[in-house]
Design goal:
alpha/beta; six-stranded mixed sheet; about 30% helix; elongated; about 300 residues
């Protein structure tokens, strides 16, 4: 008997596994519009041998491999190398989370055209995140990575000469020493793995409205590199949505060179806790940033 997937969502899931090799069982939910019946649909795909379980992950089954090859899906034979599998798990988790997102597009490292060049394949980045048209070279550092790995990420960013915006996913903020991750580029954002949803709105916050609500209309966009807004007299304002190691470093330099001056920091309550470790004397303006997110504008072309 010949079987076929029952919907575009099921085809999309098979196509994803064909490309990424592994899909965490819990991440299958991102491929279906309704969470109510998706488990039944997964069970149906398993019974028809399109997919099968391998540990805590789904991989292609016998029929799934034939189906992917017949339709010329991007297909890679299952890699069982334990060290490389851990990397594939990370890529799959991020790719699945943003799979149906029209704001964020994730391009895994193995899909980058220059992947055959040794200098590219030997690097530590896991891919590129395109957020509202802005590209971020992306890394992942877990609490289980040793200092050698962390140092290799630092070296990798130091030699990067194309991308000026970096995202580093972490599952433990304490694994990152902020002072080690400043490279003189535009942005280096430290993003906790649990904040992938929050990352969608990186470029969708009404900062100008926030500043106007807090300070009034005599504050302007700053030409200084260490702050975002100023009155060009004695008020310097830095806005934070995530920890930005480059901005933190620039502020530290400004305060060190200008002992009599201070800075205002606009952020949410959660981020205040981390930023106070670096700027205990700053003036904090705590805002519920969710109220200033324009979600309907978040369309990725």
């Amino acid at each position: 008997m010949v079987y076929f997937p029952n919907s575009d969502e099921e085809v999309s899931l098979i196509k994803f596994i064909s490309k990424y090799q592994y899909l965490k069982i819990g991440d299958a939910q991102y491929f279906f519009s309704s969470n109510r019946y998706y488990r039944d649909r997964i069970n149906s795909l398993m019974s028809k041998k399109f997919i099968r379980k391998l540990g805590g992950y789904f991989v292609l089954g016998e029929i799934g491999i034939e189906y992917a090859e017949h339709l010329n899906f991007e297909y890679t034979k299952l890699n069982r190398n334990e060290k490389y599998k851990k990397r594939l798990y990370i890529l799959s988790n991020i790719g699945a989370f943003y799979h149906n997102c029209n704001i964020v597009k994730f391009i895994p490292s193995f899909s980058i055209k220059e992947k055959q060049i040794y200098t590219i394949t030997g690097r530590r980045f896991i891919g590129i995140l395109e957020i509202n048209g802005f590209d971020y070279l992306t890394y992942y550092i877990s609490k289980n990575h040793n200092n050698r790995y962390v140092n290799s990420v630092i070296y990798d960013i130091q030699k990067e000469n194309t991308y000026k915006n970096i995202i580093i996913f972490v599952n433990d903020l304490q694994r990152i020493n902020i002072d080690d991750f400043a490279f003189g580029i535009n942005r280096v954002l430290i993003v906790e793995n649990t904040d992938k949803e929050k990352l969608k709105y990186l470029h969708s916050i009404e900062w100008s409205k926030i500043i106007n609500d807090v300070y009034g209309d005599k504050i302007y966009l700053s030409e200084y590199n260490f702050c975002d807004y100023t009155n060009y007299k004695n008020k310097y304002i830095a806005a934070f949505y995530f920890l930005d190691t480059e901005k933190i470093t620039r502020i530290k330099y400004f305060l060190r060179e200008n002992n009599s001056k201070n800075i205002d920091i606009v952020c949410d309550k959660e981020l205040e806790i981390e930023l106070k470790k670096h700027f205990p004397k700053a003036n904090y303006k705590i805002i519920d940033l969710d109220k200033y997110i324009i979600k309907e504008r978040n369309i990725y072309d």
